[in-house]
Amino acid sequence: VQPTMAQFEMDTFARSHDLMSNFWNACYDAMMSSSQRREQERAASRKLFQELVLEPAAKRGKAENARHANVLKQVNNHHSTVLKQWRSLCRLLTSPRSAWADRNPPEVRWKLSSAETYSRMRLKLVPNLNFDQHLEASALRDNLGADHLQNPAESLPLAMAKEAKVSELEDDQLAEEDLPVLDNQAEPKEQNQREKLVVSEDCELITTVAVVPGRLEVTTQHVYFYDGSSEKEETEGGIGYDFKRPLSHLREVHLRRYNLRRSALELFFIDQANYFLNFRKKVRNKVYSCILGLRPPNQTYFGSRSPQELLKASGLTQKWVLREISNFEYLMQLNTIAGRTYNDLS
Question: InterPro entries attached here (predicted)?
Answer without folding.
Answer: BEACH_dom, BEACH_dom_sf, BEACH_Domain, PH-BEACH_dom, PH-like_dom_sf
